Amino acid sequence: MDSCLAQLERIGREKLPQMIRKQEEKGRPVSCVIHNPFIPWVSDVAESLGIPNAMLWVQSCSSFSCYYHYYHNLVPFPSEKEPEIDVQLPHMPLLKYDEIPSFLHPSTPYTFLQRAILAQYKNLSKPFCILMDTFEELEHEIVEYMSKITRPIKTIGPLFRPLKSTTNNSNSNTIRADLYTADRCIDWLDTKLPRTVVYISFGSIVHLKQEQIDEIAYGLLSSEVSFLWVLRPPPKELSVEAHVLPEGFLEEVGDRGKLVQWSPQEEVLAHPSTACFMTHCGWNSMMEALTSGVPVLAFPYWGDQVTNAKFLVDVVKVGIRLGRGEAEGRIVPRDEVERCFRAATGGAEAEELRKNAVKWRQAAEEAVAEGGSSYKNMKDFVDHIIQIGKV
User: Fold this and answer.
1) What is the pLDDT of residue 111?
2) Which one-letter DSSP state was computed for residue 315?
3) Most buried by CB count within 10 Å: which residue of 53, 91, 147, 267?
4) Per DSSP, what are the bridge partners of residue 340?
5) Distance between CA 275 and CA 341 in Å, rounded?
C-alpha cells in the first residue's frame, strides 16, 4: 500500500498539472480541485497552479476528530505502555480503547493505512474548506467544534440518496459505482412479511474468520428469522480460503433464507420486508442505513467501523451491538447472535429502534431537500467557487 500511494503521488504530481492545463487550453479552466483524504498532495498541486482546493472527507466527523487529536497529540490515546485507556474528545462520548478507529491502536497490523490516513493532516491548512459526507443534525456539536480548530467544514451528506428519488425514473442521472454485479433477490424479498428479514452484508473488503461465519450460521438456524446474506468469495489478494457453511445449513433453512454473492443494497434496505441490517458499520453502509430508516446490528471489524458502531448504538440509538472489532479479539458466540437477531426483529426493543431509525431517515431527507442544511452548504460552496471564478 505504501508503495502504491507513493507511485500514485509521483505520477500524479506530474500528470495532474498537465490535465488541468489541457482543460484551460480547451476553454474549460478548472475552478476548484476536490480530493479525498488519501491523496493530500493534490493540495500542493492546486496551490502551485493558483486553484482553490477542497477536501472531501468520506468518513464521519467523529472519526475526523479522532484522527486530528491523535495526530496533534492533543489527548492521550492507547499506547504500548497503556493499551487499554479510554479516550475523551470534545463533544463526543467517552471512547473505550476498542472504540477508537483501530488504525490508531498500538496493536494494529495496518500501520500503512494509519500513515495514509494521517498524512492528510500535514496539508490540512491548504484546502479552503472540508466537505463532509454527513449532515449537520447528525453531528452538529462535533462539526461546529472541528470547524473552529481546523478548516471550515461543510456537511453535504448524505451523498447516498434515498431510493425513492430514483426509482422508476428513466431520466435519472444517478451514477452507480457498484464493484460487483448484484444477484437477483428482490423477488424473494417480495414473498416475505413486512419487517421480518435480517439483511447481512459486511461490504467488499471485510473477511471474517471461518469460525465466526459458523457462529453466525448457527445463530440464524436457532433464531428462525428470515435472512438475506451476502457471502462473497474472498478477494484473491487476501490469499485466504472461501467460507464454508455448516453441513446441511441450506437444506435446513429452506426458503426462509437466501444467500447471494452481491446485492442491490439500496433496494434491499428500502424494501418493506427488511427488518434490520447486520453490517460492518463502514461509513457508506451506515449512511445508507440511516437514510433508509433501517435499524442495524453493529458488527464492526476495523478502522472507523468501531467508532461508527459506538455512535449507531449509543448516540443515535438505531442499533444493537453484536461485536467490538479486531481489538476485542473474540468470536461472537451463536447464542449471542441468536439473541440479537430476535431482539432486532420483534418486541419492544425492535419497535424502539425502528422509531429512532425513521426519525433519522426524516432528518437525512430534510438535510438534502431544498433549504436543508446540506443543500444550503452545497449551494454556498458552489456559489463561492463561481464568485472566485469571476475575480
Assistant:
1) 84
2) I
3) 53
4) none
5) 10
| Start-to-end C-alpha separation, the chain | 41
C-alpha cell belonging to residue 255: 426458503
Structural domains in the chain, sorted by start: 24-161+370-389 (3.40.50.2000), 185-367 (3.40.50.2000)
Dihedral sign for Cα 88, 55, 385, 133, please: negative
Torsion of CA 247, 227, 315, 329, to 10 degrees: 10
Query: If DSSP codes are grouped into helix, strand and coil, which group holds residue 159?
Result: coil
* Banded model confidence at residue 176, pLDDT cuts 50, 70, 90: low
More confidently predicted of 90 and 173? 90
Which set of grid coordinates corresponds to residue 22?
Answer: 489541457
Q: Determine the Cα–Cα distance for residues 219 and 213; give it in Å rounded to an integer.
A: 10
Grid cell in block for residue 36? 479525498
Residues 156-175 pLDDT 10s? 999 986 545 434 444 445 55
Q: Residue ranges of the alpha helices (H) in 108-192?
A: 111-118, 136-149, 186-190
Structure-derived torsion over alpha carbons of residues 30, 35, 40, 42, reported in degrees to the nearest 10: -20
Q: Helices 348-368 and 373-390, interaxial angle, to 10°?
A: 20
156-189 as b/e, with b when 16 or more CB fall inside 10 Å? bbbbbbbbeeeeeeeeeeeeeeeeeebeebeebb
0.85 surpassed by pTM:
yes
